[in-house]
Amino acid sequence: MKIIMLGAPGAGKGTQAARMAEKYNIPHISTGDIFRANIRDNTELGQKAKSYMDKGLLVPDELTCDLVMDRISQDDCREGFILDGFPRTIPQAEALTKALEAKGTAMDAAVDVEVPDENIVNRMSGRRFCPVCGATYHIVALPPKKEGVCDNDGAALVIRDDDKPETVKKRLDVYHEQTQPLIDYYQKAGILKTVDGTQSADDVFEAIVKVLA
Ligand code: ADP
Ligand code: ADP
Fold first, then answer.
1. What local confidence, expressed as pLDDT, does residue 33 receive?
2. Please, which pLDDT band fits residue 10 given cuts at 50, 70 and 90?
3. Which of 10, 64, 138, 197 is 20 to 30 A from 19 (CA-CA)?
4. If you measure from the C-alpha of residue 35 to the centroid of ligand 1, how many angstroms do you get, rounded to a whole number?
5. How close is the Cα of 32 to the center of ligand 1, in Å?
6. What is the 3 state secondary structure string of 52-63?
7. Which atom of ligand 2 is nearest to the CA of 129?
8. What is the pLDDT of residues 44-59, one digit of tens each?
9. 143 lines ligand 2 (CB under 6 A)
C-alpha cells in the first residue's frame, strides 16, 4: 500500500504514520525527520534546510523531491510506504505522480487528517520530540512514561525549534497557501480519504484503518 498523509502541521500525521508503518509493515518516510537528522549531523542539506525550517517556510522543492524519489526507490519500499510531510506543494505532488507513472504505478490513498487551526497551537506547544529516534509525544495528550524522557531510548526530549508560537502561525499560513490545494488535487485523482483528527490518537488510528480497508 502506498499512502500519503495530508494535514496541517501538528494534525497528527507523524503519530498516525508511525502506527500505520507498524500495522502494515511498510516504511514511514517523514521528510521533516530526514531534514532534522541532516541538521543534527550538520550536513550541507541540513544547513540549507534549517534556514527555511526555522522561519516556518518550506524547504525548496529542488532540495526535497529528489531525496524522496531516491528513498521510495529503495528495496524496502517495494511493498509500499507511507509519506508523511510529502508532498507539500502542487509541484511536489506532480513530481511524485510522474515518478510513479514512469514505474507503471501510483499512490493508493491520500489520508487527510482534519484538525482546525484553533486546535493546532495547543498540539504544537505541547509537542516534545526525541532527537535520537524521532519519536513524538505530547505533554498532556500523549505523554511519555517518564516525564521528559523518550520511552524507546531514554534520551531527553526536546522542543522543536520551529514549534515556537510565532513560527507555528507562519507554518499554518504556509500550509493553507501551499499545501491545502493538495486536498483538491488528490480528490480529483480519486484517492482522497478524510478522517476527523480531533479525536483521541487511538480513535484517529481506528478511523484511518477503516477508510483504508
Ligand atoms: P509538521 O510535522 O509539523 O508538519 P514536519 O516535520 O513535517 O512538520 O516538517 C518540518 C519542516 O520541514 C517544515 O515546516 C518544512 O520547513 C520542512 N519540510 C518538511 N517536509 C517538507 C516538504 N515536503 N517540502 C518542503 N519543506 C518540507
Ligand atoms: P504532525 O506530524 O502532523 O505535525 P504530530 O504527529 O507530530 O503531527 O502531532 C503533533 C502533536 O500533537 C504531538 O505532540 C502529538 O503527540 C500530538 N497528537 C497527535 N495526535 C493527537 C491526538 N489525536 N490528540 C491529541 N494530541 C495529539
1. 92
2. very high
3. 64
4. 8
5. 5
6. HHCCCCCCCHHH
7. 14
8. 999 999 999 999 999 9
9. no
Q: Is 64 in the pocket of ligand 1 (CB under 6 A)?
A: yes
Whole-prediction pTM: 0.96
> 127-129 and 28-30 as β-strands: parallel, antiparallel, unpaired?
unpaired
| pLDDT attached to residue 166 | 86
Ligand 1 binding pocket includes 24 (Cβ within 6 Å):
no
Does 134 contact ligand 2 (Cβ within 6 A)?
no
Question: In whole angstroms, how far apart are CA 165 and each of 31, 55, 78, 139?
Answer: 22, 12, 39, 16
Tens digits of residue pLDDT in 196-207: 999 999 999 999
- Region 172-181 average pLDDT: 96
- Residue position matching grid coordinates 505541547: 126
Pick from 39, 63, 88, 158 the residue to mutate for probing ligand 1's pocket: most ligand atoms within 8 Å of its CB.
88
Contact 29, 82 (CB under 8 A): yes
- Split at pLDDT 50, 70, 90, the class of 165 is confident
Beta carbons within 8 Å of 61's beta carbon, 6+ residues apart? 89, 91, 92, 95
Q: Confirm whether 128 is a catalytic residue.
A: no
Cis, bond preceding 181 (omega within 30 deg of 0): no
Proximal ligand: closest to the CA of 200? 2
Shortest-distance ligand to the CA of residue 123: 2
